[in-house]
Amino acid sequence: MSILDWIDFGKVSAERDDNLSSYFYDNGVLGNIINSESGFLVLGRKGAGKTAIFKYLSENKSSFLTPDDILISQSFEDYNWNIHAILADTTKSQSMLYKQSWKFVIYAEAINSISKFYKSNGQKAPDKIKKAAEMLEKLFDTPTPSLSQIVGKKLLQLSKLKLPSIGIDIETGNLDSISADAGEINFETFKVDKDLNQKLTENIDNISNILEKALEESVGWPRTFLCFDRVDEAWDESSIERSKPVIGGLVAAADSINAKFKNRLRPLIFLREDIFETLSINDANKLREDCGELLHWNRTALNAMIIRRINHYASQKGVAPISIIDGIFDKNEMRQRQKPFNYIIRRTMMRPRDLISMFSRIIKSMKEKEENIFSEEIVSFEKLDCDSVYDAEPGYSEWLKQELIDEWGVQKPIIHKLFQAIQSNGSTNITKNILLENLKPIYPEATDISIVNDLRFLFDNSIIGFKLGASNEWKFKCFYPSQGFIDSEEYRIHDGLVRALNLIEPRS
């Protein structure tokens, strides 16, 4: 049987991979963040597997949580970000502009989910949580309103909300005095009507405080996790400065809520590392250290991840499982006497997405050889074809280059010109002076000072590496995460980008 009759590696995109739960591999980050009382940030580069973790946890709650825990999964793909712009507290610092509006969203989601939990189990919710849920139902004209309803047009009507003695009302159970019937109000109206805007903000603050108090003063309610993925959907390419405080507000709100509720109410945020670095957050480094988990992969974890995928598809066809990845290739060594898996992994940024993309292209190349109508011989593969690894490189290299552009094109548009300057060199090795010389014609603003910052950026993203002392090993950040940047005499371009940039390795 041809290996192509059964082997597969799954989808590059976790969102589209229906088999993810069957072969998900946790490299420790998910377990660490769940078991941490203070952790709420899962940070990682684009393609590192944040959405995969989010999706697996959403679909397999019992693997990490108890039956009495509540898990709320929110993806922001279709989220109405406009609401936070309306509810901005302009008296606060940038990082706090949208903190209160996010607290409202989190508390409303928590109250709804806790209320549903008790109902589904035939139990009575704590009185104050029950009344808070009834208040939300009255405000939004529906039991347990969805996230889209909470941040939709109905919310705008709360600008006309009458809240006489709301604290007393929720204590006594009398919600009849609440009225939010204000007719149709749209976002455009709020842009020009400051009074409406202020009134809405005040009412949302009051409601948020009520919801917080209901949770704070109730006992025995289940531990509740709110997972937020696709937060980068708020990353507006046309206005980065507008996007930063929106995302920063979510981080600030989550930090505050985690501290207040001590592991009972746990917002978990899955966020790109590069976006977190841009946020104006007080004590960002401390927050990363105390409350963050960095999604980084080593060779062992990537090896285990890819083997688990291979064995999943092998079992479906009755093929014996493998334990050593190199044993599935038709040759023991490739160029420069490298083992096949090492050859492939050196062309990745040490991310699952890179490996899956490369292996998928190898399979595609092999299928093209088997299906070649002009071949005079019948081609069949018992193992992965090492020659097809070479064939897959150009397409993979172009894909990797585009991934980096997609990752950094908004924050660092100079990445386009840096790639141009590197490509103009023609060699895999480049010096600072040559890079500056190649960059100046297309970017006149480049200077001796700015080029060092550009080199640091390129190194931090593993586009370039350097040697230390007499060592022959090129240090790339993805392979040596603890290595800091050093202003060196010579740099080398990452092997995964060589084909896309049409570079040639020097003979000496």
Task: Kindly describe this structure.
There is one protein chain. This protein has three domains: 1-27 and 297-408, no CATH class; 30-272, no CATH class; 410-508, Arc Repressor Mutant, subunit A (Orthogonal Bundle). Strand 3, helix 12 (240-261) and strand 4 (265-272) form a beta-alpha-beta unit. The model is unreliable at 164-168 (pLDDT under 50). The strands form two sheets. A five-stranded parallel β-sheet has the order 2-3-4-1-5, with helices on both faces. It is an alpha/beta fold. The chain is built from 21 helices and eight strands. Helix content is 47%, strand content 7%.
For the sheet with most strands, the description reads: 5 strands, parallel
Q: Please give the count of helices.
A: 21
Mean of all residue-level pLDDT scores:
87
In what range is the share of β-strand residues?
A: 5-15%
Uncertain regions: pLDDT < 50 for 5+ in a row? Answer: 164-168
Kindly give the count of domains: 3
Features:
single chain; 508 residues; alpha/beta; Arc Repressor Mutant, subunit A; 3 domains; 5-stranded parallel sheet; 3-stranded antiparallel sheet; 8 strands; globular
Short description, anyone?
This protein is of the alpha/beta class.
Give me the secondary-structure topology.
Elements: H1 20-23, H2 29-35, E1 41-44, H3 50-59, E2 70-75, H4 82-86, H5 99-120, H6 127-140, H7 147-150, H8 153-156, H9 166-172, H10 187-192, H11 194-216, E3 224-229, H12 240-261, E4 265-272, H13 273-278, H14 284-291, E5 292-294, H15 299-316, H16 340-345, H17 352-370, H18 386-408, H19 415-425, E6 429-430, H20 432-439, H21 448-460, E7 464-465, E8 491-493
